[in-house]
Amino acid sequence: MRDDNHTPVLCLASASPRRQALLASIGVPVSVMPSDIDETPLEAESPTAYVERLAVAKAQAAVGKTALPVLGSDTAVVIDGTILGKPNNQQHAAEMLRMLSGRTHQVLTAVAVSGPLGILSCCVATDVTMRELTAKEIACYWLTGEPADKAGGYAIQGLAAIFIEQIQGSHSAVVGLPLFETTRLLRQQGVPVWAGRYPS
């Protein structure tokens, strides 16, 4: 029988409904405490170092405000060494999608979890190949509202799934949280996940 206890066992330092849903899918009920931090990249900072630094900073910002372990995470879409964040407007989103169209880019998602071992973190890289997009598809996609708050201007778990030709790596990391690696960090910090509540 599935455990119906919804008492939070983790504090999620993010307002992302996608991360909440991913954690719920592995049986980890959370309380939500978004962290407001400066997300400006440092000079000469690599994309990997950038996302991992932000994930750790988000977790650290919530530590001390809750008795629960804290999970912070950050996702970035990277192409030609350039980090693509969330689009500022329709023109910005269209520019990003034109950059990604017909090419392979990388999605980096970092996770940091606080607990008895301090803050443990990791970063997962996934290669995503997007088919060629027409100008009309890009314009129509913006009108759905989906790209507005997504890194790189697209949501692989949404309508943009039809744009994706191939993925090499973690699908859940592209959505917002690499579940395999996240489970490992949670267990190291003593946070129960669904599978861990049953005898082996």
UniProtKB/TrEMBL annotation:
Keywords for the protein's UniProt record, in alphabetical order: Cytoplasm, Hydrolase, Nucleotide metabolism
Coarse class of the protein's main subcellular location: cytoplasm
EC class: hydrolase
Catalytic residues identified in the record: D74 (proton acceptor)
Domain of life assignment: Bacteria
Necessary cofactors: a divalent metal cation
Gene Ontology MF term list: hydrolase activity
Iron-sulfur as UniProt keyword: no
Site feature (Important for substrate specificity) residues: R18, T75, Q157
Catalysed conversion reaction: dTTP + H2O = dTMP + diphosphate + H(+); UTP + H2O = UMP + diphosphate + H(+)
EC number(s) given by UniProt: 3.6.1.9
Subcellular location: Cytoplasm
Family: Belongs to the Maf family. YhdE subfamily.
HAMAP family recorded: Maf
Function per UniProt: Nucleoside triphosphate pyrophosphatase that hydrolyzes dTTP and UTP. May have a dual role in cell division arrest and in preventing the incorporation of modified nucleotides into cellular nucleic acids.
Protein name: dTTP/UTP pyrophosphatase
Organism: Vreelandella lionensis
